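Weekly puzzle thread! Below is a chain. First person to post its structure in token form gets bragging rights.
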Amino acid sequence: MRDRRPRRPERDAAATMSLIGHLRELRNRIGIALFFVLIGTAVAFWWYEQGLGQFIRAPYCGLASDTRGLPSQPDGDCDLLVIDVLGGALIRLKISFIVGVVLSSPFWLYQVWAFLTPGLKKSEKRYGVAFVAASSSLFALGAALAYIALSKGLELLIGLAGDGVTVALTAQEYIGFVISLLVAFGVSFELPLIAMVLNLIGVLSYETLSKSRRWIYFLTIVFAAFITPTQDPFTMLLMAAPMCVLFEIAIQIARFVDKRRAKREAAEGLAGLDDDEASPSIDAASPLDTTPSSLDEPAHLQR
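Winning reply:
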């Protein structure tokens, strides 16, 4: 008689590796990722003199000369102060490393993904790719908005010093301020995505999000007021407004997901079941086969 039982899908060889094999693969993946980061850092180190440094200084150099405090160069460029011998080299290495990590992110993220993929199901792989793409895009959007807000924030903060005060920013302080602002905006834009992921896995429902909409918007504004390094209203609103829009998009996606989940559960007869209540598929299970097996017979009776 032909066996009609469904065949199990073939397992990925990487998913059945031993612990030593996994550790060896992890070591190789980390080594390859660090190699790509090193290449990206070298490219950014060369790029620094080809326009990268000027791009980073642009928000500060775009301010009026009386606001900056330091005179401009004959070519119209401006400089930041370095007050120690190694300051300039460390600043360039720091910027090169951060930009190198960003430039090489597709390559080292692929190494992380290649290490995790064998242990995931098809649906998990699909959602994982979508999550990585969405999170990268949102982080880039937040960083871009932070760069736009940088000039206005600097102008406001430096202007608060008043007349009779000369402001001379050091390179270390300015670069640290820029990096903190970019990271703050980028990470903040990930929060609506986290809410959407919690809904997809069934932890956070649309009903809960909808009822908490006012609190979400209020806490978003409070969060933006505390997280922005500039602490000025313009930067705070530039962060809070897009976050509120993203949260509203996440709420509407949760509404769509919950409707589809409810229809699927109704079709499977699972709608309205409590967490502790057995599903119909378990109640309708076939009885156990009590026929004794030949393996249970004494050894001298087996042939």
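Puzzle host: Confirmed. Bonus trivia for everyone else. Residues 87 and 172 are 7 Å apart (CA to CA).
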